[in-house]
Amino acid sequence: MIAILNRQRKSPIRTRAFERLLAALARRYRLAAPEVSLSFVGERAMRTLNRKFMKKDKPTDVLSFPLGETGPDGKFYLGDIVIAVPVAFRQARAKGHGLDRELRLLAIHGFLHLVGFDHGTGIEEEERKLHRIHL
């Protein structure tokens, strides 16, 4: 199951579009019905998560929390992605594109971390491949 949670109020989020994006990514990486959540949060919530889990006392754009295991219920729990919408908004403006595009880029980046890609191990090249096929 793919769960999209909008925990911020300033920007509308097209949740169905993100459900479709994550479903397409799951198919691409041959994951049969993974349990994955994507949460959109504000800056304060992201700062708290970043401080607690990454030991950095500042907000960031995206965090991924991979699980990658099958639960006792037989479901495959891939993990969770959290995106800070205000940070994404500033990045989108700086890059000269819209918030929706930036949120898509961050969701893809977060998903790639869940399936095992990391900085320095090919995540950037994999992102380029995915953008070429227009998921």
Order of helices and strands: EHEHEEHHH
Strand adjacency order, main sheet: 1-2-4-3
What's the CATH C level?
Answer: Alpha Beta
Q: What's the quaternary structure here?
A: single chain
Structural class: alpha/beta
Full CATH superfamily name: Metalloproteases ("zincins"), catalytic domain
Query: What's the CATH architecture?
Result: 3-Layer(aba) Sandwich
Strand content: 15-25%
Number of strands: 4
Helix residue percentage:
40-55%
Uncertain residue segments = none
Tell me about this structure.
This protein is of the alpha/beta class and 135 residues long. It has a single domain (2-133), classed as Collagenase (Catalytic Domain), CATH 3.40.390.30. Helices cover 47% and strands 22% of the residues. A 4-stranded mixed beta sheet has the order 1-2-4-3, sandwiched between helices. Helix 1 (15-28) links the parallel strand 1 and strand 2 (35-41). Helix 3 packs across helix 4 (99-114). 26% of the residues are buried. The mean pLDDT is 93.
In short:
Helix content is 47%, strand content 22%.
Descriptive tags:
135 residues; alpha/beta; Collagenase (Catalytic Domain); four-stranded mixed sheet; 5 helices; 47% helix
Secondary structure blueprint with pairings:
Layout: E1 2-6, H1 15-28, E2 35-41, H2 43-54, E3 62-70, E4 76-84, H3 85-95, H4 99-114, H5 123-133
Parallel strand pairs: 1-2, 2-4
Antiparallel strand pairs: 3-4
Helix pairs in contact: 1-4, 3-4, 4-5
